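Bench log. Compound arrived from synthesis this morning; before running ITC I wanted a structural hypothesis for how nicotinamide-adenine-dinucleotide sits in the protein. Inputs:
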Amino acid sequence: MIWCGLDIATEFSEALSSRFDTVSETPVGSKPDIFFLCSESTHALCLSFIDDCVGGIPESHILAIPDGEDAKNLTVCETIYSWLQNNQAQRHSLLINIGGGALCDVGGFCASTYLRGIEFWNIPTTLLAMVDASVGGKTGINLGHYKNYIGTFTQATHIFITPHWLKTLPPAEILSGWAEVIKHAILLGGKAWAQVQQPIPNTNDHQAWLSILEWNIKIKSRIVNADFEEKGERKLLNLGHSIGHALESWSLDQGTPIPHGNAVAWGLVIETALAIDLSPLKEDTKSLHEQLSAIVKRLFIPIHFTQDNIAALMNFIKADKKNQQNNLLFSLAYAPGNCQFNIAVSPEDVIQILNDYVGQAD
Ligand SMILES: NC(=O)c1ccc[n+]([C@@H]2O[C@H](COP(=O)([O-])OP(=O)(O)OC[C@H]3O[C@@H](n4cnc5c(N)ncnc54)[C@H](O)[C@@H]3O)[C@@H](O)[C@H]2O)c1
């Protein structure tokens, strides 16, 4: 169940009471089977609100793990598994993930593997997690600098999405999520594509955000429901990600990580440049590339890499999970609302397009 609205306090506490069938005198938050996982930031910024909703959570049932990518590794998973075990979490226990995409990814992964799987709910607190990471059932951690290499396909049974949390998000994190909003707008075309050409709404404008969140959740859910395990259509959600993930992994490798959304935004630009020659609708693809470049240049700082870095980037591109045998398979946009998956591209064409980007970015 995905809920998107403003009164999360009522919705969340009612769902929890109904899950645990509570007698009214017992605060639902103190039930021994509920575990709250947050990051250091969401512990400081979001937990007290949730704590008030559920009438108090015992300290032992709250775990704060590092913020961001630092949490997406096996060491942190072991901390989470041990915390659950030390507090007698059982098969019927519930893990509630409160945080951004990284927290939802690692929390979902641990829930889906602890005791071969316990139920988990997501309360996404970043824009990216609201429109993307918390929805769709992909859980995961990184393997070294290879992003999301270990994971499961397991759906959160409840997801509570509200623009309420956006007000404390740093502008860079709003931008990071906006890249996925742009990706969804390319998939949808029409009004959604027109909307992302407009300025990003102020975080106080809850009505504007509700409408944006709703169409994002709708397109993501529609594609996920059609192809949960990414055998086909779901690969469309990887638009911009073959190159975006490579940029992200490479920057992590260099010790200067760039935000996921920034990498995806430039991945979308570079991949639409690549799509022009392969497209049956060359003029439309060219126009999409130009409009997209204008949006991305206006909002996102450029990513700098040189010709010397292209071999390393190609290694990450070749490791992309969408590839089959030695073939590079991309999802490409030909026009807003017209995108295809499993498009074979030659490594030479990718190298050429990365070289062109170096030339233009300098
Ligand atoms: N599973 C999926 O389908 C999927 C899809 C897209 C991305 N992802 C993953 O999501 C991750 C990126 O997610 P993200 O962009 O949310 O970054 P993030 O999870 O790293 O969060 C960014 C920062 O914002 C902080 N934060 C969270 N909520 C906040 C709030 N309300 N106010 C202030 N600060 C807050 C976090 O603690 C962190 O420091 C990547 O690891 C990516 O691989 C997963």
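What the model suggests: The chain has a mean pLDDT of 94. The radius of gyration is 21 Å.
ITC booked for Thursday regardless.
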